[in-house]
């Protein structure tokens, strides 16, 4: 969304994908050297209590001095991240910016994420075109402006200022985003162990990706996004009718039967098995690493407990901190439940309505969870905006795209200014900053609503096209 | 178009909100005209809408206690003044004697003394320092062989305080060009300081900073504050030893004074700061007090501080209080006419209903407008009007008080009276602030002054701005919807009876058509950001005159724009290569308006005054833009008028042109050259003014896009 202008440039010259991708990498590497001046790591929009690398370094230091890494409410992430990234934070190369190696790691994570998104897009597109062909709607495909959605999505992800800022801001979010994308890619490519590993890791790191369980199951069960199921049934009946008169169409009918999505339980079962294996494995690793410091119980309390009870009320771009700073203590538990149920309430209806498009469902879930998360950052937006790019063709009729674009740009620029006015200049107050957080939430809601309605409209359009086509065929057969 | 037909039928009952939107969009010209006029009128009405100031914080209680400053303190102070003025010029110029005398006097009073030695900070433009947090700055800069400035601080520990809060008194002086005014300001501060060492009511520590303003008033205070809040651990002595071995003997002599890290004394957080200056040469009939309050980027101290000073000066000491005015406006005929109209309206209103208090006399209106204009201008410039600006960077409320007596200061008999009077004012303000329980927060931070006791608060002045920019989103929306509608009708007109027309692939990406315009706008913004960095490189060239540097800046900008076009493709190439897209300029215009709208909104939060002044120029620029070719084709009088407006705005929109026009109208056109623009801009970036960024991230892109639209090939 933020960097849709790139999208337009790719529209004209799709072959330039690699140039743009490498350019974005180079930009990141250049910006790393100015990271001290840019000072993104102290921005509340970028690093949350969960993802801040500074906190991670602190946790690592505590661990090195054989204390619990969770002592003193500084670190709230996974012990595995501590083991992997922790040593990197301790290495300082003289004359270079601190956390240089970590920054390199995040740049690489960003790049791999983008590549996974691209691969996902290619799979989605080939499946989509196959389905359209089987519906006899190849005309839609012939459009010269049909984008290769994988390239678009990957470039949107790579060039999105939010992603770049996250990458520069020394937060562990690129890793989390990487695991989320990994699981989605695994599900698209039907690599069950990969999908389950990604999902389990993502859930372990930030808990909220747990709701992606449903789209992943649907992906494995139904296969990649298709036009609605009804369409195929309709098509089938139409074909059977004219099967007697027209033998040549028999072939199309056959492919239809092949493409008809039906839920198979085999892969989801494998997935469940693999997911349990991976979670046991990860929990065992965690248990080993926090064995001396209170064990798994302490870890759960300090990570998931910290996420769910919204302990840290320092300002962020979410809507929860202000609310829980204001709410009376005896209502706190009630509202905690209400807020978390909010996410869960939306899961089922959306899953039913969008079950034929599991990837899109995953996008919607990511957007909703980034909206209602306890410690959101722009990294979440970066992820779902990247996923949004995957549906560039389907969502081409989206309303309010211009308005949303301006809104995202405006709010993302306004938020640091309001923060400055409140914290540094002292002429504003918390309401100023919270107002931008609410505006941001509104824009996210509008984005979700508009994209879902555009997707449904797209489905409806396909249905209309296919009925028109059917009637045409009928007419022509009658005439002949 | 079955689809369109289906869409048409439910349109009959659109929601009221949507209907209002459609109504506004369809009447956008009338609407934007009304809004702009209303915005301008509201701006002119601000002096009428100004409210009288009042003291909002009850704890301040100004003037509730009797003044305790006695003639004994004053005679002590006069002794100090005599000591300072008695120094021969050479010893004074060395910059050590005055701190020594001050230290002696302060120590005699039983207060703590310390000295702060500092080097001038070279004011350099460094593009990336804008992003770093305060305190992180410049400390690593090499200090060269300059003579260090030495500021003296005296601290009184409050008998009733816990040492966590302090009030600061600043008296800047320049040892080299010491005049009687500066000596008197030191004397006055000393008299108050000596009184405060004896009083029992003090709850906050008092810091008196005699700032050596050899390298500028602001610098000395700013370096002291930086040392106070974020001390640097690189030893100054070491640096001196390394860089300037030749000056070693100079420092030897200074050993009498206490320097070093441990010697820097601190008190608590500062509640308020008063910068006191005495100016000679007042032509008024009374002793006058001028208040300067604008800090960097249009930040103001809490209004209560100004209120306290104003209240005490007027009601206790009988001083004439002034704030800065734009004198060129006082004789303005236009303002007088407007004032007369407003007075007339006020009379009419009172005649209709005596309860309606509306309208002010002409003289008051003109004066208020001149003050408001000066307030707007100095806030918009973003350059602090005195050393109080340094305090605001640390969230400390501070004002500069310039006191000018009616008689010449060399008159010894009058000196005592003057010292007593102004000393009592300062004592009263300190006593009032001393009562404060928390930091200033009750009154306004965002306001304009239209007189020493009149102000316009944020709630009022925002209206003028909101009216001014209200048409922007409406016009952007209407242009955008028109462009997309036009698009679809063009497609719909195609003679195609087959149902396949529904599947017209180019329809698919129609709503994303604006992306191309977004790309153009984005590129222009990037270019403009690059242009804002050029001065950094140009200023590296040695021995370059301001005129040639400003010329090279303009040339470099034009060249880089050309380069950008040749690399990324001109925005016009798209329209020519693909099918002629008639509404392309409309999309571009709507995108440009949105960008300007976002920019203005952001700027109104950062520095309202800049946004207000900028909006007066940018809003017409945005609203009126139309390709010249269209107007040439139309050949109606309306089109020609619009074309003339467009051309005029195109000239005025060029920042140097606007600068010269403003400067020329206020100061006369003779003696203007390109160099002055460079100097002005240099001033902006040296002070890290947000206005600089406004010009290059909002105004210049908007202007370039405006030119694009004018020259659009259609």
TrEMBL record, chain A:
Gene Ontology BP annotations: attachment of GPI anchor to protein; GPI anchor biosynthetic process
Pfam (any one): PIG-U
Cellular compartments per GO CC: GPI-anchor transamidase complex
Cell location: Endoplasmic reticulum membrane
Pathway(s): Glycolipid biosynthesis; glycosylphosphatidylinositol-anchor biosynthesis
Membrane topology: Multi-pass membrane protein
Keyword Endoplasmic reticulum among record annotations: yes
Transmembrane domains' residue ranges: 17-35, 74-93, 100-120, 178-200, 207-224, 271-291, 303-324, 330-352, 398-419, 431-456
This protein's record includes keyword Membrane: yes
Keywords recorded for this protein, A-Z: Endoplasmic reticulum, GPI-anchor biosynthesis, Membrane, Transmembrane, Transmembrane helix
Family membership: Belongs to the PIGU family.
PANTHER family (UniProt xref): GPI TRANSAMIDASE COMPONENT PIG-U, PHOSPHATIDYLINOSITOL GLYCAN ANCHOR BIOSYNTHESIS CLASS U PROTEIN
Protein's name according to its UniProt entry: Phosphatidylinositol glycan anchor biosynthesis class U protein
Organism encoding this protein: Nepenthes gracilis
UniProtKB/TrEMBL annotation, chain B:
Keywords: Membrane, Transmembrane, Transmembrane helix
Species the sequence originates in: Nepenthes gracilis (Slender pitcher plant)
Spans through the membrane: 20-46, 458-480, 514-538, 550-572, 592-623, 644-662, 692-711
GO CC term (a single one): GPI-anchor transamidase complex
The name this protein goes by in its record: Glycosylphosphatidylinositol anchor attachment 1 protein
Any single GO BP term: attachment of GPI anchor to protein
Coiled-coil residue windows: none
InterPro entries the UniProt entry points to: Gaa1
